Structure formats: structure tokens, C-alpha cells
Amino acid sequence: MAEPRVIPGFYYDVEKGKYFKITKTHSAPPSQAKYTLQNVRKEQKKSTAEKQARKQQEKREAETIVRPHSRNRWGLQMASLDREIGGRRKTYYTHGIWPDACVAGMEKMKTVCTDLCIAYNDPDIDGPYVNQQFTPKNCSTIWGAAAPTVPFAPNSIPQSGTESLAVAASSSLLLFERSPTGEWNSSTALQRDTDILALDWLSPTTIILGERSGKILLYDTRSKGHSHILTNPFPISKLKRADDPTRLICAGVQDSLFLYDIRSRDTFSQHAQGHYSDKFFNDQYPGFHRRQKRKKMKHTAAANWSQPIVSFQYANPDDLYLDIAVQPDLGLIAAAQDVNSSAAIKIYNMWTGKLLKEIPQQSPVKVHIRCLRFMQDSNDDPELWSSWGGSVVKMSLG
To answer: InterPro entries of this UniProt entry (predicted)?
Structure first.
């Protein structure tokens, strides 16, 4: 239906389908009170706001990938996600067999007992020294720090020439940037009312943040804006970029290790295939007498929690310092386990969630593994390095 023609001094009533003359407030009879100048302006303002809200809703629905409650067709959707961002669809071999083959020949652990010093520096800027010390002000705790890694995906935003460092300091996000002269400048990019426990770079201009409350935020260094995009059910200990800028690995307490896609809406599945099924709530609150707590948790999950794409078999009841590492090219995730677990490190297939290998505790004294990194040797073969008490342990995947 075409929009009614605008006639100066008249108001078109959609319900009655005709024009009425706009009258002044003080001279309008009771039957014409709806068409006074003041009321017409209110109606026009309301109509404009409704149109804008509809346009924004249509735009959100068009740009958001909605995950269905039934996961039977999720494999087809996953194939479409890669195609949407311009990437090639990975074969069954890449998703299911390749990660397993990469860790099949893992050698016995080698302990590196010599002094270790890893320094990254640009001689043109740094000069003769190789390390720098940062001391954030008004900060009681530093939870983590991350620098943009290269290379990112070929279709990501190009990096600028500025070196950057993001720091999770208490409840603040601090950004350190180095000027062309080599001087570092710091600024408080974001202030929150809860601790920021984890962070990582999804792209050269986008930082992902994880809070103690379980909220996952995106921060854009260009617009200086942030948004709450996902919610983890438990406090977050580590966040890592997965295999593209829209997917992330989230580790938290209460044995939570998930793969999220930031383009999927927060939805809740009642089906057995979904992560938050009846079995999940029964494991959290077993027994008939705790049914009210299960019911309350179901309501919280439906209203707030984000549905993960993949969940992993993980043991971490309450340690915020256990590390994880991601090898996106091979599709591998390494996660340090709870000190009371029989396994010290578990390695998973990123795309399927399959447990590929368990590395047991090697000494009677169990240790907390605070650092894990995938590295490459001189032949570009992958290795997994980890802190192990007072030692550095290297595991070859070749």
C-alpha cells in the first residue's frame, strides 16, 4: 500500500482512512481532540520511532545467523559459515582425521633444563635492549596480557604500523601503544564493575574480553566501543582466538571448555544433542530434592547463557590460572587440567570436540600448569611447550 500524500495542515488517520484538519489545542472540540497540533506531533513522533525500530529489527535478523534448537542441520550451517567469510570448506579429513594424525607420533617429553630467555624485539626501534617493564597505575591485579599475533586471516583488516599490547588489569582494559619514536603510551580503554580475567585479539582491531561474571565482550580499538555478545555460565579463566575471527575458545571454572561462534544468537536447546540438556542440569544438581534448583538453573540458562558449538571433556573445578593453547592450522586445543586429575594436559580436536591424547602427571608431586604454547621447531614441525613446576617441558608432535 502506498504512503498517503502529505497535505500541509491536515493529518491522515490510517484507521478511518481520511484526512482531518489539524486544529489548535485551545480551540479543538472534544470530537477533534485527537487531531490537535500537540497530539498529532506525538503521534508522528511515535510512528517515526516504530519505523526505526522495525528497520533495526529487520537489519539484525538479516545480519544474524540464528542457531536452530535442533542441531540436526547444524553441520550444513557450519559449512555455510565458512563460505560466508570467504574461506574454503574444510574436508572430512581435515576436521576428523588430520588433528588425530598430528598428535599420534607425540614423543616422550623432553625437559629443557637450561636457562630460557625468549625476547621479541625490532632492532630498528628497540636498540640494544630486549625487554621493557610496564607498571600500570591504580591496579591491584594483572590477570593477563595479549599482543596481536600475525598473520591473521587473509580477509581480515590490515594491521597498522603501531605496536599494541592489551592488558587485563583488575576491572579495566589497558591499551599500550608504541609511537614511531619507540615510546610506549598507555590508556584505560574500558572500565568495568567486575574483574576482566581473560582477553585475546580476534583481529588487529578487535579484542575479546572475559569477565568473572561470565560475560564475553568485544572491544573495537577504532571506535572505542564495546558490546556484550556472549555469556558463559561460569567465571572465565582463558579466552583464545580459534580458527577465524568469529570463533573463540572459552575456558572457565566448573569444568567448562567451549567453542563459541559470535554470530550465533544466545539460544537454549531442550534437545539431548544440545549442551544444556536435562543431563547437564541433573549432573549439576542431582537428586529429586534439588529439582527446584534445577528448574531455576534452566530458567537462567534459557534467559542468559549462550549455546556453545562444541564442548570439550575438561577438568577444572575452580582454578583461574590453568592455561590453554590453540593451534588453528592443525585444529588442536591443548588444555591444562586440574591438579587432582590423572591427566596433566589434554589435547582435543577443535572442530569435533574429540579427545585425542592425554599427557599424564609425570611426578609424585602434582603441579599446576600455568603456561602452554604451541611452537615450531627449526623444521617448522609443531611442538607443545609447557611450564612444569620449575622446568620447561617440550613435547614434539612430529
So the answer is: CUL4-DDB1_E3_ligase_receptor (IPR052254), WD40/YVTN_repeat-like_dom_sf (IPR015943), WD40_repeat_dom_sf (IPR036322)
Mean pLDDT for each consecutive 10-residue tract of the chain (398 residues)?
A: 72 77 69 73 85 86 62 50 52 58 56 41 47 69 86 53 85 87 85 94 94 94 92 94 93 93 66 62 71 73 80 93 93 93 92 91 81 87 86 81
For β-strands 310-311 and 10-13, DSSP reports them as unpaired
Nearest CA to 334 out of 361, 358, 299, 363 is that of: 358
- CA–CA distances in Å: residue 172 to residues 169, 189, 192: 5, 8, 6
DSSP 330: T
Q: Which residues have CB under 8 Å from 107's CB, separation 6+?
A: 395, 396, 398
Whether 263 and 309 have beta carbons less than 8 Å apart is answered as no
94 Cβ neighbours under 8 A, 6+ residues apart: 331
| CB-neighbour burial class of residue 191 (10 A; exposed 0-12, middle 13-18, buried 19+) | exposed
Q: How far apart are CA 247 and CA 341, in angstroms?
A: 28
What is the residue extent of each domain of the chain? Answer: 10-63, 74-134+232-268+305-396
